C-alpha cells in the first residue's frame, strides 16, 4: 500500500489531470438520476445531517435535468423515508436512535421533503428508496430499459454514500456512468474527494458538469 502525505483533494486533482485517464464516454441516450436532494441532507441551517459542497449544486442539477427533459431523456429523483417504527430501514437503522437518525426520516416530514430549490417536473419519476443505491428495490432498472437508456448521470448526495452506491450499481448493470463533480456533496472534503477519486479510477467518468451540459446541448 502506498503511503504519502497528500490530501484527498490533491489525489483527486492528480487523477483528473492525467491526460491518459481512460473514460467510458457517453452513449446514445442518458438518464439523470438525482439522488436524495432532500431537506435532511441539504438544509444545513436546519438539520445536523445536512451538508453543502458546491453552493450551486442544486442549480446545476436543475440545469442538466431541464436539458435532458427537453431532449426526451428521463429524469429521476429519489429520496429516503421510513415507516413509523423504522423497521423497513433494517439493520442499517440499529446503530443509533435519535431524531437525526436515518430511520427517523418519516414519510411526510420536513426531512423527507425535497429541497425547495429542486425543479421537479410532473413528467419526472420520483422514487422513495430505503437503502443507499437508487437501484435497490425501486423500479429504476425497468424504467431505464423501457427508455432505451445506456448512460446514467448520477447527482446528489452523499458522494461517499448513496451517489457512490448508485454509480457502482449503474456500472454493474452495464450502464456508462457519469458523475458531474459540482452536482455532488458530502459532509467532509476528504470523504468527497476520496470517493470521487475512486469512482474516477474504477466505476464512472467523473466530469465537470459543463461536460454533461455540452453533450446534452449537442443532441
From TrEMBL:
A GO MF label: isochorismatase activity
Name of the top EC class for this enzyme: hydrolase
Domain (Isochorismatase-like) ranges: 31-206
Gene3D superfamilies: Isochorismatase-like
The protein's Enzyme Commission number: 3.3.2.1
Keywords per UniProt: Hydrolase, Plasmid
Pfam families found in the cross-reference section: Isochorismatase (PF00857)
Protein name: Isochorismatase
Species whose genome carries this gene: Sphingomonas sp. JE1
Amino acid at each position: 500500500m502506498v503511503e504519502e502525505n497528500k490530501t484527498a483533494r490533491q489525489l483527486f486533482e492528480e487523477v483528473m489531470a492525467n491526460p491518459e485517464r481512460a473514460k467510458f464516454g457517453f452513449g446514445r441516450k442518458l438518464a439523470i438520476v438525482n439522488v436524495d436532494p432532500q431537506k435532511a441532507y441539504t438544509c444545513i441551517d436546519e438539520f445536523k445531517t445536512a451538508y453543502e459542497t458546491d453552493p450551486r449544486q442544486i442549480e446545476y442539477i436543475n440545469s442538466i435535468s431541464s436539458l435532458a427533459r427537453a431532449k426526451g431523456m428521463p429524469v429521476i429523483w429519489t429520496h429516503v423515508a421510513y415507516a413509523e417504527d423504522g423497521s423497513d430501514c433494517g439493520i442499517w437503522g440499529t446503530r443509533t436512535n435519535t431524531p437525526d437518525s436515518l430511520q427517523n426520516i418519516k414519510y411526510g416530514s420536513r426531512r423527507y421533503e425535497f429541497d425547495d430549490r429542486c425543479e421537479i417536473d410532473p413528467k419526472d419519476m420520483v422514487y422513495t428508496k430505503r437503502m443507499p443505491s437508487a437501484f435497490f428495490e425501486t423500479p429504476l432498472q425497468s424504467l431505464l430499459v423501457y427508455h432505451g437508456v445506456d448512460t446514467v448521470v448520477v447527482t446528489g448526495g452523499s458522494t461517499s454514500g448513496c451517489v457512490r452506491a448508485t454509480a457502482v450499481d449503474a456500472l454493474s448493470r452495464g450502464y456508462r456512468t457519469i458523475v458531474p463533480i459540482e452536482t455532488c456533496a458530502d459532509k467532509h472534503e476528504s470523504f468527497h474527494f476520496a470517493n470521487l477519486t475512486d469512482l474516477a479510477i474504477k466505476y464512472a467518468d467523473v466530469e465537470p458538469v459543463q461536460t454533461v451540459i455540452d453533450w446534452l446541448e449537442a443532441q
